Amino acid sequence: MACICINLHAQELGDTIVGKVHSIPEVNVKGRRVSPSLTSAAPLQQMKKIEMERLGVLDVADAVRHFSGVSVKDYGGIGGLKTVSVRSLGAQHTAVSYDGVAISNCQSGQIDISRFSLDNVSELTLSIGQSDNIYQTAKMFASAGALSIETAKPDFDERPFRLIANLNAGSYGLVNPSLFYAQKLNGIFSLTGYVNYLRADGNYPFKLKNGTKWIDSKRNNSDIETYRAEVNLFAALSDKQDLKAKAYLFDSERGLPGGVIYDNTYAAERLYDRNYFGQLKYENRFSEKWKLQASGKFNYTWNRDYNKESSGITDDRFRQTETYLSATLWTEPVKGLSFSLAQDFAYNYLSTTLESNQSPERFTYLTAVAARYSNKRFSATASLLNTFITEDVRTGDAADDRKHLSPALSLSWKPFDFGLRFRASYKDIFRVPTFNDLYYLKIGNSNLKPETTRQVNFGTTWNSNSLGFIDYLSLSVDAYYNKVEDKIVAVPTMFIWKMSNLGKAETIGMDVNLAGEMKLAEHYKLYLMATYNYMQAEDITDRNSKLWRNQVIYTPKHSGSGSLTLENPYVNITYNLLYASERYFIAQNIPANRIEPYTDHSISLSRAFKWKKHSLRVQLDALNLSNKNYEIVRYYPMPGRNYKITINYYL
What we know:
The chain is mainly beta. Helices cover 5% and strands 58% of the residues. It contains 5 helices and 35 strands. The strands form 6 sheets. It has a 22-stranded antiparallel barrel. Strands 1-6-7-4-5 form a 5-stranded mixed beta sheet. A two-stranded antiparallel sheet has the order 2-3. Strand 25 (497-521) and strand 26 (524-539) form a beta hairpin. The chain is globular and about 80 Å long. Residues 1-17 have low confidence and may be disordered.
């Protein structure tokens, strides 16, 4: 506008400057968008691709360990199962979504996140309680915590195709190549394909104390071979309509080495997993005030558990299918005030080769109504979830129908102009018993009630980018209280163990997150990330029991993580630290049931090279530098010091 005014004024004066081209010096304006994790009314943590590369993490489980309030149960090694528990509530209370559609396992209720690779992941998000996002499926309202995995979307700014080739290799026979390709077909359609292969021997040496004796041996039957593939079709049907279709394949065979028992290293159990699913997601943005998203999914999961023991061979097979439909309508009638209505339906079926197979099937109906108000200083989100579940079995007794209303409320307030916010949230949610809880052999109990959970959180967040020598600093502190009633536990009856609603647990805790950036010199920058978790999770089932006020199994009172990265023109250096205090693997907290604290140190070196339109990134990792075979799960030692190399090529 200033240029136009000067030009017009010059014309009025008859200046000879008119008609000439003049260069105005370039002005760069830099700003930082405040992360949603700092403005959210409920605890929210995010990790984008650039942060994953900076940390040097290679799989989803390693990345999630750097979130606060999270426990990853790891059965050791590359092929070990890995599940996520939020604030000691258990893995069954944590939902996992893949590109906006929830993943389910009606048999065990736990999602093995080792199935997913970071190669094609663009972002990880962990929400605790109810997030501010009300434009989502009803199923994402139905969990105490949710881990969202978003895969890479095609970027065709420079060329009509994209190619990314990755190779990971390391100790214990690890070889893991992958390939990502994206192609723009025309103005409407684009296609991406991703393939990943992983194999490893996994037979690492270990030294572990078992009772009073030290075991110095080598893991066996720890091999794994996995194939992953997915194809995505993107369709920009119009300026307001989008369609995305996904087909996914996962096939693996792995050995299960079992727990380490002195003088018994024999293991012959094999686990075969196949998972195929297809999903569709459609969105229509009718106007600025109305939009609709709908999704559908069919999922097929097959498992085989084969074991050749001295007592005989067992060969059990399990097959699950799920049909899932969801639709969410969102509206914003007044600026800053929005509403949503989400309706989900799911049909689950389980078939096994076990003699007592009851072939259970479950029909789930979820309806979520939510509202959100937001302005520059204040936001409030409220939701109400209605759950109705009915089941049927071919033989025996089916569980009763279940109905439940689950309210949630969260508030955020920014009282001052600088980056300080306060937040509070409450959520009432419940976990439906899994098919294993209800129908597995003789321990299942079809009379089980759902576990009910109440979550209360009070916290504060702060950030600043005007601290002189520190470019950016953010801090969040959250104190929380959880209570679980009707907790599902296995208890001994006259002759056998039986699943029962006899447990109660109470958790008081605190999560602290710190992140900072500092420019040391031209082209030299320091990045810091740190978390600390305090979690007092106690059994309050029976005041007269020996377990009264004992810490819940596998829950450390103190845990945390840290990362320090020096970015420079030569080789970027990252140091990572993970820590967990003592835990107990049996409910009674006595020395014999204690698992030792552990500290895991690792270091990563990385360098990126660019020429013309090509990019190459090389990363070297030294993991578990202290070479300690610590345990996350009792009798499952983790690998000692090991090494990895990662090569990424981009075109």
